[in-house]
Amino acid sequence: MLSISSIFALSKVDPYSSFKILFNKLKEKWLNINQEKSCMMKSNEEKKIDRRALLSGIAGAVGGLIVGAAVGWFAKPVTQIVKTVTTTTTLERTVTVERTATATPVIKPTTLNFWYAATEVGSPEYLDEFILPEFYKKYPQITVVHSYYGSSYEAYETALKAALSAGSGPDVFNTPGPTFTMDYIKAGWLLPIDEYISMFNWDKKWRKFALRVHEGPDGKIYGCSGVFEGMVLYINKPVFKKEGWSPPKTYAELLELCEKAKKKGYIPIVMGYSDWPPGWEHQYSAALEAAAGHDKVYEALTHKRSFDDKSFVDAIAMFKEDLWDNEYINHDAFTIGYVDFCSRLSQQKAAMTIM
Length: 355
Known about the structure:
With about 350 residues, the protein is an alpha/beta fold. The chain folds into two domains: about 5-225, 3-Layer(aba) Sandwich (D-Maltodextrin-Binding Protein, domain 2), CATH 3.40.190; about 235-355, Periplasmic binding protein-like II (D-Maltodextrin-Binding Protein, domain 2). The chain contains 14 helices and eleven strands. The strands form three sheets. The chain has a five-stranded mixed sheet. Strand 5 (about 110-115), helix 3 and strand 6 form a beta-alpha-beta unit. The longest helix is centred in the first third of the chain and has 21 residues, at about 15-35.
């Protein structure tokens, strides 16, 4: 079983187009041989079909979406190796053409259980109204039963771990990101999806980092990213226009601007985490990227560097001392939510935000 983002992607992808291209090329080559030699041909064909067993179930997780252990439902494509030997009677030579064909996957009627957490209003309705109908057009044999945990991620995670530890739970589920996934991998609740990455050429469709961040200690991939986020410093344009400020281009300019904004009575950088405390990772990531560098961050995400590394410790210390201790970030950030801090921006009470 696949990560739900991957399953939806299947409705847009023809994984067998490469075979069609190969077959057409071989057909063209075969016709050219016949035309050039202008001789009578006789042929015999021997066909060898290698059928593999059904895939074990995979269930999904991370970045958005992850693979969790479950019953197998998706049969691996049948591989057919067809060897055609053709002998020309005039030239007494043999031309051998081999082609490998991938047959259409056999999908058994099955029910796929999908659990997910999301706080956005209307998430289950959107899934039912827009995503699943398109999915069913492509895969009518599969029924998706989804369980929505919209109240809090903590409640969702508690229910998820309890179910998986009892040997039940969903076939497919999501997590907020790769840092949440390692516990599931170490507990043995997930199966790798490397076979599917090769089968559907996901390594050509996802950027390398988007798969590698879901790599387990054994070097195998256990999930696919459903969402990518970039950390950006946003400026409040009406405030900047009113004060005649220009966007900062360096860290030193940022600190200088924060001090000016504070003296003018603005919140230099406004934040709000009460409705999603892990949202702090936005600023944490920005600090690590800016101070430690993306190479070290990538090494940490792929288990080649510890997050206790001095460069990371120094980056967070600098962020705390320069921005938090100087009150350039509002100290009620953990008691107000997303709507509240956006209101402060719209009311021109704050100069900037990072998200």
